[in-house]
């Protein structure tokens, strides 16, 4: 591999001139710039990024810690971070805790797994990263992030209500509002809800969005039309049976898995989603396109969560003397519109 010294010799210019051209600095003529760039290409020169960063006393490297890289939300968030880093000349080191693979859902609520998180943060800092993004595999409040590392930290898909660090999550209330509004615009006024676990912050936020959409459209709120499931398909089947008995013409399911239960129940009574009952889900999981007809659902902005997280972290790194406001940023969801909603007249 060619060196910058060899590029300079081959081009008949100084090492400083080659360096300035590589870094986009002015001073060289167009002819010289063209000659040097052609030589770089011909000799397949690659800048030594590590050496350059050491000279600048900055390594332009961030750490990414994932709770579990195999969970559906995580790859798209990492991809968003990756693109932002590429665009801003940053590298990243990836650490995967594999918590879901090891412990299933237990670690969501049990703090005995916190030590694994703390150890990973210390390990990541030992790699000389300038900041860390922590990606959760279930959106929830967490209390396991060490605050005394001395480098900026941003969390994605999880948050700290006390705002000890900056967090980026999706907007549950807005997503539920738009989902309900979509059903209302299709002519439905008796809209049932298959809610998640009652204590879940997602359930609570999505109920707020549902109620606000009814209020804005002057539809009387009926609490009997809200029934609580457990996020799994079977609870969706049982609840849809009860809601249909109550005469609903449309159902908002708070996730795509419970929406699957609606398809199951309607098939058992020889009725169809999109013809006899309008249905909208939440998450835009892969399974939503496997239903027949395909499910309209609110898409989580995972890629955008990643990009925003990287932007906030890199801004903190590059403006280290500025005061940081540790806020919770909410990114809006988008509707993935398919064939599960019909116009009710």
UniProtKB/TrEMBL annotation:
**What EC number(s) does the entry state?**
5.1.1.1
Superkingdom is Bacteria
Q: Is Isomerase among this UniProt entry's keywords? A: yes
Q: Name one GO molecular function term.
A: alanine racemase activity
ATP-binding in keyword set: no
Outline the extent of the HTH lacI-type domain: 2-56
Residue runs in coiled coils: none
The record, for Gene3D superfamilies, names: 3.40.50.2300, lambda repressor-like DNA-binding domains
Against Pfam families, the record matches this protein to: LacI, Peripla_BP_3
Q: Which CDD domains match?
A: HTH_LacI, PBP1_sucrose_transcription_regulator
Q: Which UniProt keywords apply?
A: DNA-binding, Isomerase, Repressor, Transcription, Transcription regulation
Task: Return the protein name.
Answer: LacI family transcriptional regulator
What is the native source organism of this protein?
Clostridium carnis
Instruction: List the gene name.
Output: ccpA_2
């Amino acid at each position: 591999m060619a060196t910058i010294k060899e590029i300079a010799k081959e081009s008949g210019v100084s090492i400083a001139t080659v360096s300035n051209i590589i870094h986009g600095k002015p001073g060289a003529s167009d002819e010289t710039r063209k000659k040097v760039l052609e030589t770089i290409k011909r000799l397949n020169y690659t800048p030594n990024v590590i050496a350059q960063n050491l000279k600048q006393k900055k390594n332009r490297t961030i750490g990414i810690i994932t709770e579990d890289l195999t969970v559906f939300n995580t790859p798209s968030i990492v991809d968003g971070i990756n693109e932002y880093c590429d665009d801003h000349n940053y590298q990243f080191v990836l650490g995967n805790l594999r918590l879901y693979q090891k412990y299933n859902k237990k670690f969501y609520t049990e703090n005995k797994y916190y030590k694994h998180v703390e150890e990973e943060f210390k390990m990541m800092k030992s790699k000389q990263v300038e900041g860390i993004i922590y990606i959760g595999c279930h959106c929830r409040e967490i209390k396991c992030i060490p605050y005394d590392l001395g480098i900026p930290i941003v969390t994605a898909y999880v948050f700290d209500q006390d705002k000890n660090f900056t967090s980026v999550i999706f907007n549950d209330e807005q997503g539920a509002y738009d989902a309900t509004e979509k059903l209302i615009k299709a002519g439905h006024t008796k809209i049932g809800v298959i809610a998640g676990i009652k204590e879940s912050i997602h359930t609570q936020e999505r109920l707020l969005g549902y109620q606000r959409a009814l209020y804005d459209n002057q539809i009387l709120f009926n609490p009997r039309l809200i029934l609580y499931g457990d996020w799994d398909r079977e609870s969706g089947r049982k609840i849809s049976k009860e809601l249909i008995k109550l005469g609903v013409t449309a159902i908002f399911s708070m996730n795509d898995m419970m929406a699957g239960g609606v398809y199951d129940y309607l098939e058992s009574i020889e009725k169809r989603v999109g013809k006899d009952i309008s249905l909208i889900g939440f998450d835009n999981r892969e399974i939503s396109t496997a239903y027949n007809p395909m499910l309209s659902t609110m898409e989580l902005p995972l890629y955008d969560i990643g990009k925003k997280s990287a932007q906030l972290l890199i801004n903190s790194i590059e403006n280290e003397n500025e005061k940081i406001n540790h806020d919770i940023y909410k990114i809006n969801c988008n509707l993935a519109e398919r064939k599960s909603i019909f116009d009710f007249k």
